[in-house]
Sequence to fold (269 residues):
Amino acid sequence: MDWERVWETASTQLTTFGLKVLGAIAVWIIGRMLIGLAARLLSSALERKQVDTTLQRYIGNIVRVALNIVLVVAILGYFGVETTSFAALIAALGIAIGAAWAGLLANFAAGAFLIVLRPFKVGDHVKAGGCEGTVKEIGLFATTILTPDNITSFVGNNKIFSDTIQNYSSSAYRRVDRQAQLAHGVDARDAIARLKEALARIQNVSQEPPPDVEIVDFNERGAVLAVRPYTHPDHYWQVYFDTNKAIGDTFGEAGYPVPESHVRMKQAA
Fold:
């Protein structure tokens, strides 16, 4: 056996294959750079057209996925793989994956409906799919929600679309619901007047509509007041906590007694 000829043939083939690998790596790197450039150009064009941020990110994700598939097919063609048969294989795999991943495709379809119907947008504070927080992104298959305790949650689009969606940011104001317990003997009208004055002084409380303070119930300790100021959704928790402080400070300054139960148990004979 002519080992010199074998070595020469092997070295030639290895060199050719190595050059192809290096070429494929170069194509991959350059292709990824071009995909990133195309995505940025598309994003800039959509921004100039003042397209909604949510729609921008959704279109950008679709374009990136499509271009990456084209890049992979191009690299395979560079290595001599028959791309037509590969395309047929992708179509067959798509059917098989579609049957196996029906839930994933349902998430994709639900994401498209979320973009079209727009029950919420990026930046809105919502409660959807059992998760409450600020919407960071509506992706191809899942929506990213940042909860108030700073936890990033990914909720399937189909779960969101098939469940009740509460959008706290869609209205100009939101009502804060609190209650204040009065003791027996305290003049409810006096307490209502004092609380209304205190609520009006809280920062970011809306004057229109004005805060509501009314008797909502009675129990064994006395009257119960419903304390309901209104504020912009962005200031909800600040007004919520300041309302609690206002109730305590107002009743303390007025010298109201601590509510106590007046129900006495009947002593057994």
